[in-house]
Amino acid sequence: xxxxxxxxxxxxxxxxxxxxxxxxxxxxxxxxxxxxxxxxxxxxxxxxxxxxxxxxxxxxxxxxxxxxxxxxxxxxxxxxxxxxxxxxxxxxxxxxxxxxxxxxxxxxxxxxxxxxxxxxxxxxxxxxxxxxxxxxxxxxxxxxxxxxxxxxxxxxxxxxxxxxxxxxxxxxxxxxxxxxxxxxxxxxxxxxxxxxxxxxxxxxxxxxxxxxxxxxxxxxxxxxxxxxxxxxxxxxxxxxxxxxxxxxxxxxxxxxxxxxxxxxxxxxxxxxxxxxxxxxxxxxxxxxxxxxxxxxxxxxxxxxxxxxxxxxxxxxxxxxxxxxxxxx
Amino acid sequence: xxxxxxxxxxxxxxxxxxxxxxxxxxxxxxxxxxxxxxxxxxxxxxxxxxxxxxxxxxxxxxxxxxxxxxxxxxxxxxxxxxxxxxxxxxxxxxxxxxxxxxxxxxxxxxxxxxxxxxxxxxxxxxxxxxxxxxxxxxxxxxxxxxxxxxxxxxxxxxxxxxxxxxxxxxxxxxxxxxxxxxxxxxxxxxxxxxxxxxxxxxxxxxxxxxxxxxxxxxxxxxxxxxxxxxxxxxxxxxxxxxxxxxxxxxxxxxxxxxxxxxxxxxxxxxxxxxxxxxxxxxxxxx
Lengths: 328, 286
Hints:
The complex is a heterodimer. By secondary structure, chain A is an alpha/beta fold.
């Protein structure tokens, strides 16, 4: 059991996936709680997609065990699929069909009882704010609208877990923000668990918990706040008329200080709240103040020793993707 | 594990499973029809090639072949051209899986908790319906060619077109499941579709071919699908014996003239084989 207190809806134990000599996912274990937004953060090629594919029954684990919604992904793939909603990196809508027709198609394939289909279509379209586009062809949709429709579609069969693989890839920042509003709202309204992968730091911030994955291993797993706290304290840089006097005054009062170019750097628990006290302490006029709180970028750098690359679509050779896919 | 105890909504008794699979097949079928109806330009462009063949080759060859007892080459070609239209559309529809893959929708189908057989059957049924419709549209040209139509003949034609279309759509699905890329599609069309049409008797009589070519026509499933179509059309036309001799409609096998029943049976067998292959191919696709 993990933070959050709810029951585990995803249970991963020693999950491993190898492609020949290459180990894409290396004995990872974690739990995701019911109702949680859980982010898998890592650079391209870290093993995010391979992991999500195994969780969704689209790739077979080389070793280890995964249970989703109580079902074993290897032994009961169909039961798992009925309980999960999937949104892939690439678009998987039929753009010659209307929004409603795409949803109806999905409803039938996922065994939504015929009597409930219309009601659910209305409901999921409302959730992603596309009710007025119900009868429009998907070919007329923008990228952001299409992505929201895919999320709506994934919710048609009331899944326990919604999997989003790089959900905002290829979307402009404004659309990304809107999409996040949708995801957080639908979590509120339908209490669905959300599992997503991303290589955008700012997106991971929306998650309740983040697993940082690098080279097939989970290097850190915690809430965004805890991860940042683990990296270290806030820093406050002070530029003064006399830095030597300022540093001496701060040290006298017990602050941890070091001299940096253009002033004094103070390490404190909460930078923003400490500013007033610091200015009073230095005793000389303060020219400028800069407060820095650790970001997820710092966290990533801290755990992996590298900066995350802001790259676009994950480039996995088609052959390797085919290899990763499982046969039924 | 804690979550295993949670109630599950899934019911798996065989009755509902079968009903759900049939619904799936119906939905995939319906999608093909909706897409067909929405792509009017495709319907139109699907008409151009057969019309071109009929007009250019029909008129061109008519001059060369001449008229036998009032029966000319265009009338001979007409059922063949209809068949060509059906077969082209059928294979195209079956192979549209390649497009589905390219544009991602195939993935939506493949990850669904449904049987692959239902998907393959729906795709086949949908493509076949579309192909039979496309072939039936050709009937508007009948008066121009001087082919006499009756209600019974139209029904016979539609029935035979459907059978032919089912076999060839399933064939298309099967081939498409073995193609990863769009380029492969062109290759298949060039290497399979055109030879199959040319060696089916759709465009010229097969009775005077050299042995090796004759062998190829006899292993071509289309040969047995084109012949019945021609037979039912010819049966309704006024055809003097001289014309019947000049333009034979049936398939000769080992010195015997096959009856229409046998020909249809052969197509049914081919259809069965292709459907089985299509389901197998679809089941192995990822």
